[in-house]
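Handout for the seminar on molecular recognition.
Each group receives one record of this type.
Step one: identify the two inputs.
Step two: read the structure output and locate the region that could contact LLP.
Step three: write two sentences on what you found, then compare them with the reference statements printed after the record.
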Amino acid sequence: PASTAELPDADLAVGGVPLTELAARFGTPTYVLDEGEVRARCRAYLRAFPDADVLYAAKAFLCRAMAHWVREEGLGLDVCSAGELELAVTTGFPPGRIVLHGNAKSPEDLRTALRLGVGRIVIDSTSEIARLAAAVPAGTRQQVLVRVVPGIAAGGHAKIRTGTDDQKFGLSLADGSAQHAITRILGQPRLRLVGLHCHLGSQITTVKPYLSAVRRLVGLLARIHEQHGVTLPQLDIGGGHGVAYRPGEDSMDIAALGARVRAELAGGCAAAGLPVPRLTVEPGRAIAGPSGVALYRVLSVKRTGEHTFVAVDGGMSDNPRPALYGVRYAPRLVGRRSSAAPVPVSVVGRHCEAGDVLAAGVPLPGDVRPGDLIAVPVAGAYHLSMASGYNLVGRPPVVAVADGHARVLVRRESLADIQGRDIGL
Ligand code: LLP
C-alpha cells in the first residue's frame, strides 16, 4: 500500500504513524485502517469505471467512518443485512445509493429496506418475488434487479465461488429459472425490474471471467427485449476483485478490468442492437483489504524439535480466514531490528484449538520473543467483519490513521460488553 513506509529500527509507518506508537497507545490486538489508502482505492475505481455506479461491498468491513469515507469519495454501498443498512444510514448515507443483497433476506431486512427507501433490492430467488411485492406499500414501486447465475467458475476458493449453477445463490440461466423469474417480476405492479445482477465469486485475479459474464448477461438482455419488449437500463456485475496477500502474489488490475469490461459491454450491446446499460460494480476486498493492518503482540514462543510456535494475543476469533480458506499471510516483526537469521515459524493464536494458526511456515527472525510486535498486512477485509467472540475474547478495536494522526473508530470490545448481553440465571 502506498502510504506504508519503512522507518528506522525496523518500524513501519502506516498513514504516517509508526506501528510501535499505535501499539503503545491503543494496545493489541488492534486493526489499523489507513484512511488515505481507502480513499485512493475508491478513486482508482471511479477512474477505471467512469459513468458507472461503484458500490463498496460493506460485508468486507463496515463502520460509520468507512461508510462516510466511501460516500465522500462518490461511491454507493452494497449491503446484505438490516444491520449494515441501518449503520450506513445513521451516517447520512443516501438510501437511494444503497443496494440490498441476500439469498435469504429476513422480514426485518426487507422491512428496513422499504422503510428507509433503499435504492435497489436484488431478487435472489423465485419465492422472494411475491414476498417482496407484498411488502411494498400500495401506490409505490420498488426498483429491483434479478441475480442471475451465469454458469462461470471463478474465484480463489470453492467456498467463495458463486458463479456456478447448483449453489444457494441466484437464479440459473442454464435451467431457465432466471428467465422464469423475470417474467414473474415483470408481472408484479409493485416491482420495477431495472436490470440484471451477477456475482461470480471473490478473490478473482483475472479479467476473463467478467468478460464471459458480460457476454452471457447481454445475451439475456437481448432475449428479454425480444420476448417482453423491455429494455433493462442497468447491469451489475458484482465484485470479487482479488488482492495480493503476500508479496509477489497476483491481484486484479482494476484499470484493465474497467477498460475491458466496458469495451465488451459496448461491443456486445452494439451487436445486439441494445442501448448500453449503466454498469454497476461492487468491490469490497480490493478497497478495504490492503488498507488494513492487524497488529499483535507475541505472548509466548514454543520450540519443539521440528517447529517454532509464535503465539500472539489474537487469532481465529479476529481472523478466521486461514482456518476457513487456507489463506496464507506474510506476518512481519516490527519495531525491533534483529540480526538473527530468519527461521520458519507458525504464528498461532490464543484460542483453544490446534487449528488456530494465522500463518504456517513463515520466516521470522530466529530470536523472536514474547513482547515482540507482529504486523499482518492486508487485514482490512473479511477479518473484523467475520470476527467471532470465541472463548469470550473481545473483538479488537479499529484505529484509523491519516496524515500522521490516529483515532479510534470502533473501540475494543470489553469483558463488560460481553457480559452485558448475558441475562443470567
Ligand atoms: N457483491 C456481492 C453480491 C457479494 O456477495 C460480494 C462478496 C461482493 C460483492 C464483494 O466481493 P469482494 O469484492 O469483496 O470480493 N469471506 C470471504 C469473502 C466472501 C465474499 C462474499 N461476497 C473471504 O474472506 O475471502
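Reference statements: The chain has a mean pLDDT of 96. The radius of gyration is 23 Å.
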